[in-house]
Amino acid sequence: MTALKLLDAGLDLFAFAMILILFISNHKDKGMTYDTILFSKVEILFLCCALGEALSWVFDSQPGGFSRFMIYFSNGLFMTCECFAMGYWYRYVHYRLTGKTLSSSRLKYYNVPFYALAILMALAPVLPLFYTVDASNTYHRTTGNAIMSVFLIILMFYTSHIALVQRRHEQLPDRKNECTTLALFIVPLIIGGILQLMFYGISSIIPLGALSILIVDLNLKNHRIMQDPLTGLNNRGALDRYMLASASDSGKRSDSYGVMMLDIDRFKEINDTYGHAIGDQALIEFSSVLKKTCYADRTFLCRYGGDEFVIIIRNVTIDDLQALQGRIKAALLQHNMDHPADYILKTSIGTAHATNLEHTALNELIVKADQSLYLSKRQS
């Protein structure tokens, strides 16, 4: 084995070790959600890719029947898992962007090209569409390999495209940042692919792919820490961080702030009558309406607890707060008309306002908004 191939195998094994550590770290958390399950499958498939490519470097051009078998096995493993990894990546991004899984009918057709590629890979020794192995056990790419690469590149670009399109529709800064992270996932992979196509013999796809996995993994962990898992909104921890940042930023302390505290009217009745699953659905729908209505970049939206939500807005007037109350209630009315259900979504809202934070802390405004909400519910 040449020194270059030994280096390539080492790089792939280093990437394997890094992804494995991330995978094990993620599985220490017992509360696996659908998106984390999808991302774990992407990690597993990248692990198989790294192992397959490392083995291909080790056995390439080595004599013997076992080496020939391992060349076919390792390259088939690498290419098959590479295809399925990109397939699961699309499903992960689709779920993170829409909160919906692919329908069973759509998934059936979606999987066809991936299973077809897997079958063709298994037939590589007798049907060398993607690569050949010559008499000296040396691997050679064929035209089919380039066609498969183009297919995967198109899929990756399409996945990034839908993330960028969704970014334009998102109102909350955290969601915009997540869309950006998902869209940029392909950049290290594309760079690695170009380098490996131009300079065959240099392992770059897997190491740079591991970098993409690391970036998304960090993003996922950040969202799991700072986001409410049911609604996708900021949680209390994110609220605490937001208040600390606002208090320590002298520029933001001089801004005017408005706080709204909201809850869902008769939410306990919805839970008691229809069950907690329907109650959860009501919370998700209510959150969706808030996301669509509170569109300013300077808006912080948080699930405070139970059916209570907090909206914090910088550089806002009392009139702006009143106008937003009207828009939220109108949006809920429209939602009830567009999506009839056994329950009706209504809200009570309390507000508080301060011209700056020099003399009034944000937590004091939240307390005042909560008191205002209490008075609003008593009056209604």
Brief characterization of the structure:
The chain has 15 helices and six strands.
**What is the count of β-strands?**
6
Fourth-level CATH superfamily of the largest domain: Rhodopsin 7-helix transmembrane proteins
Shape summary: elongated
Reading side by side through the largest sheet, how are the strands ordered?
4-5-3-6
- Classify the beta-strand content into a percent band: 5-15%
Total number of helical segments? 15
Description of the molecule:
Helix content is 68%, strand content 9%. By secondary structure, it is of the alpha+beta class. The chain has 2 domains: 224 residues, Rhopdopsin 7-helix transmembrane proteins, CATH 1.20.1070.10; 144 residues, Alpha-Beta Plaits. The model has no long low-confidence stretch (mean pLDDT 87).
Topology (elements, then pairings):
Elements: H1 3-26, H2 34-59, H3 65-98, H4 104-110, H5 112-122, E1 131-133, E2 139-141, H6 143-169, H7 173-183, H8 186-198, H9 205-226, H10 236-248, H11 250-253, E3 257-264, H12 267-274, H13 276-293, E4 299-305, E5 308-314, H14 318-338, E6 347-354, H15 362-379
Antiparallel strand pairs: 1-2, 3-5, 3-6, 4-5
Helix pairs in contact: 1-2, 1-9, 2-3, 2-9, 3-5, 3-6, 6-7, 8-9, 12-13, 13-14
Keyword list:
alpha+beta; 4-stranded antiparallel β-sheet; Alpha-Beta Plaits; 380 residues; 68% helix; 15 helices; Rhopdopsin 7-helix transmembrane proteins; two-stranded antiparallel sheet; single chain
